Amino acid sequence: MKIYTKTGDKGTTSLIFGERVSKNDIRVEAYGTCDEANSMIGLGVSFLPDEEWAKDAITVMRKVQTVLFHVGAELATPAGKEVAWKLKEEDVQFLEQTIDRWQEGLKPLKQFILPGGTPAASALHTGRTIARRAERLAVAVEGVNPLVMSYLNRLSDFLFVAARYVNEKMNMNEPVLHEENE
């Protein structure tokens, strides 16, 4: 099977169920941005060490990536149609439970932190900002499953905590915001 089809050479693409739309359609922008966030999570995972805590984190991240793939599929589905796999409340709850579990061992925030630290945490912070963009785009998608909005909103919170968790586990101090007059 060839990877290229040439069907998009004129600036259109197919949604799920075959409807053709412009490549700058809001649905395409939204699911493409989910794909971008997913890739950045994968980059973050690639920087994790071969340690027990990281193996658990990788398992969690792979589950999140799989669900995010399905979120993209829901966004790629025209209004009034349904994909076989639907996002569930449990998917949002999984993020919340992981946030709570990982946050237990973190120092309370007393000031703003800057995105950065280890390469893994930096990639997860970047994934967080991409997830926020996906959320902003998904708001404009007609007929989107409301759980998509909840998931994307919680995903950015999850990625923030995940970046902090990774920095903590890898003994990296988080970069902090410095006031200009310091």
TrEMBL record:
Pfam families: Cob_adeno_trans (PF01923). Coiled coil: none annotated. Pathway: Cofactor biosynthesis; adenosylcobalamin biosynthesis; adenosylcobalamin from cob(II)yrinate a,c-diamide: step 2/7. It catalyses: 2 cob(II)yrinate a,c diamide + reduced [electron-transfer flavoprotein] + 2 ATP = 2 adenosylcob(III)yrinate a,c-diamide + 2 triphosphate + oxidized [electron-transfer flavoprotein] + 3 H(+); 2 cob(II)alamin + reduced [electron-transfer flavoprotein] + 2 ATP = 2 adenosylcob(III)alamin + 2 triphosphate + oxidized [electron-transfer flavoprotein] + 3 H(+). It is an enzyme of class 2 (transferase). GO terms for molecular function: corrinoid adenosyltransferase activity. Keywords: ATP-binding, Cobalamin biosynthesis, Nucleotide-binding, Transferase. It comes from the Bacteria. Its EC number is 2.5.1.17. Residues 3-166 form the Cobalamin adenosyltransferase-like domain. Belongs to the Cob(I)alamin adenosyltransferase family. This is Corrinoid adenosyltransferase. It comes from Fictibacillus barbaricus.
